[in-house]
């Protein structure tokens, strides 16, 4: 069955450092990979989308890479700030059959210490 | 359009009662998703609609759960004979998907269900 794995342990980093979060997937060939941010008690909020034919995408302090051979995406937040503390979710979507829906990983909790 | 809205925000019910949640998606979106989320976990897929058609329902979903999206507009999720294990946050999301590609999903604030 399809599986999406993210760092199970919380990631603690110092303000100003780069946070790197990992998303690995198996038994899946997604056409799109998305990253969302979720704050406690609230719904996820979209951050970035990357297509299967794209290697890297950037938006301000955020960078996403997508390696379809390794079946992995890396999500980077540069110059991290305490306000970046949240849970970050990886989500996959594709076309046809069982992939034709948006499914989420378990999420990684990021804590940026001042 | 003010985004995806869900109602109610919180629901406390006694075990065995039926509950119904409502989701109003962004009007131009053709996709509507329902997810369930428990503490420390990611959103778990329940079901989704393309316009008014329910295209997939998770195998994890028992027959006590049913969802509708009449006329491809708002959607309802009903849970019959609630159990304590149904306690969770129920999230609704909408997006647009077609042959030209996908857009991001927009989520509502969720409905927090507590079964006592």
Task: Describe the secondary-structure layout.
The complex is a heterodimer of chains A (114) and B (116).
Chain A: E1 3-6, E2 11-14, E3 19-26, E4 32-38, E5 45-51, E6 56-59, E7 62-67, E8 72-77, E9 86-93, E10 103-104, E11 108-113
Parallel strand pairs in A: 2-11
Antiparallel strand pairs in A: 1-3, 3-8, 4-5, 4-9, 6-7, 7-8, 9-10, 9-11
Chain B: E1 5-7, E2 10-13, E3 19-24, E4 31-37, E5 44-50, E6 53-57, E7 65-68, E8 75-79, E9 88-95, E10 97-98, E11 101-102, E12 106-107, E13 111-115
Tell me about this structure.
The complex is a heterodimer of chains A (114) and B (116). Helices cover 0% and strands 54% of the residues of chain A. Chain A contains no helices and eleven strands. In chain A, the strands form two sheets. In chain A, strands 2, 4, 5, 9, 10 and 11 form a six-stranded mixed sheet that branches. In chain A, strands 1-3-8-7-6 form a five-stranded antiparallel sheet, with no helix packed on it. The termini of chain A are far apart. Chain B has 116 residues and is mainly beta. Chain B has strands spanning 5-7, 10-13, 19-24, 31-37, 44-50, 53-57, 65-68, 75-79, 88-95, 97-98, 101-102, 106-107, 111-115. Chain B is globular and about 45 Å long. Chain A binds chain B through residues 4, 6, 31-32, 34, 36, 41-46, 49, 51, 89, 91, 93, 100-107, and chain B through 4, 33, 35, 40-45, 48, 55-56, 91, 93, 95, 97, 101-110, 112.
How widely separated are the two ends of chain A? 41 Å
Helix content of chain A: under 10%
Classify the oligomer.
heterodimer
Shape descriptor of chain A reads globular
Low-confidence segments of chain B, ≥5 residues, pLDDT <50? none
Q: Average pLDDT across residues of chain B?
A: 92
Q: Which strand-content bin applies to the residues of chain A?
A: over 45%
